[in-house]
UniProtKB/TrEMBL annotation:
Organism: Zizania palustris
Top-level taxon: Eukaryota
The keyword tRNA processing is assigned to this record: yes
GO BP, sorted A to Z: tRNA wobble position uridine thiolation
One GO MF term attached to the UniProt entry: sulfurtransferase activity
Keyword annotations from UniProtKB, A to Z: Cytoplasm, tRNA processing
Classification via InterPro entries: CTU2
GO cellular component: cytosol
This protein's record includes keyword tRNA processing: yes
Organismal lineage: Eukaryota, Viridiplantae, Streptophyta, Embryophyta, Tracheophyta
Name of the protein in its database record: Cytoplasmic tRNA 2-thiolation protein 2
């Protein structure tokens, strides 16, 4: 938009007195507040609304159409890849970030619509899938005050309860070792301290997170684990895995449904960008 305004008045050298300067600055400020996505004049779908946002492909959408656009991609990924069936019980891995927050909201909306359809059905033959939330607490490895961590966990619980989630699992990361040893915290610290490089340590922790989620799912009867991984995070993982020579397992890491685990792992936000998800969280407050 800034380039378009400059062209209409003969370039950027006309000085601060130019009438386009204030409007350009306002548009730039709006773009900055909307997650650094470009701002369009009108919605390309419904034709209304000022302050529409540009999504991938340069199409401008208003707030409502932008939200519907992302929800459509989420729903298409879930339905076309048979991620969630009516008989499933889904465990959503929740970190509190924009991606997992959007995944929680969208799967809640899909379930609410399924419940409405079930109530309206005469036969009520098919059940409605269940949703629960899991948060892996890694505070044993960080130096943050316990009060701050407790507040964060309470915030996570309140977010889950706000969308009608009744089952919340807050699991310390060291519980992965609890089956073999009572001193799970000591075993975890010992294992992490044995790894010298940061990359190897992060790979190890990522594996432990998934093992913790698998343990929760197996102990509580969940049939699917849903992650909030988006296209941006997957792109980073592809580059990282390529550099580290992990090409053998890479195709399975980035597919919609990963059946290598005992409880299958699904990634419904694979086609959504991190900037889009952050912007949606800001628009929905």
């Amino acid at each position: 938009m800034a380039a378009g305004s400059a062209a209409s008045c003969g370039g950027t050298g006309c000085g601060s007195h130019c009438s386009s300067s204030s409007s350009t600055a306002a548009e730039d400020a709006t773009a900055e507040s909307l997650g650094r996505l470009s701002v369009s004049r009108e919605c390309g779908k419904c034709g209304g609304g000022v302050g529409a946002v540009a999504v991938a492909g340069g199409v401008g959408l208003c707030g409502e159409c932008f939200r519907a656009h992302l929800f459509g991609k989420f729903k298409l990924a879930v339905t076309s890849n048979a991620m969630v069936r009516p008989t499933d019980s889904v465990l959503l891995a929740f970190s509190g970030g924009p991606a997992s927050r959007v995944a929680l909201q969208f799967i809640h909306e899909m379930r609410s619509k399924a419940i409405e359809s079930w109530d309206a059905s005469n036969s009520q033959a098919l059940p409605v899938f269940g949703v629960a939330v899991a948060f892996v607490d890694e505070s044993v490895l960080c130096s943050k005050p316990k009060q701050e961590i407790d507040m964060a966990i309470e915030d996570i619980k309140s977010i889950g309860f706000s969308v009608g989630i009744k089952a919340m699992h807050i699991t310390p990361l060291e519980d992965v070792f609890s089956m073999a040893s009572k001193d799970g915290e000591g075993r975890l610290r010992e294992a992490v301290d044995m790894i010298d490089d940061d990359t190897g340590r992060e790979d190890f922790l990522q594996c432990l997170r998934m093992l913790a989620l698998q343990k929760i799912a197996l102990e509580n009867g969940y049939t699917k684990i849903m992650l909030g991984s988006c296209a941006s995070a997957i792109a980073c993982h592809v580059l990282s895995a390529t550099v580290k020579g992990q090409g053998y397992s890479l195709p399975a890491d980035v597919q919609y449904v990963d059946t290598r685990w005992e409880i299958p792992v699904v990634i419904p936000l694979r086609d959504c960008l991190a900037r889009e998800l952050s912007l949606l969280c800001e628009l929905d407050r």
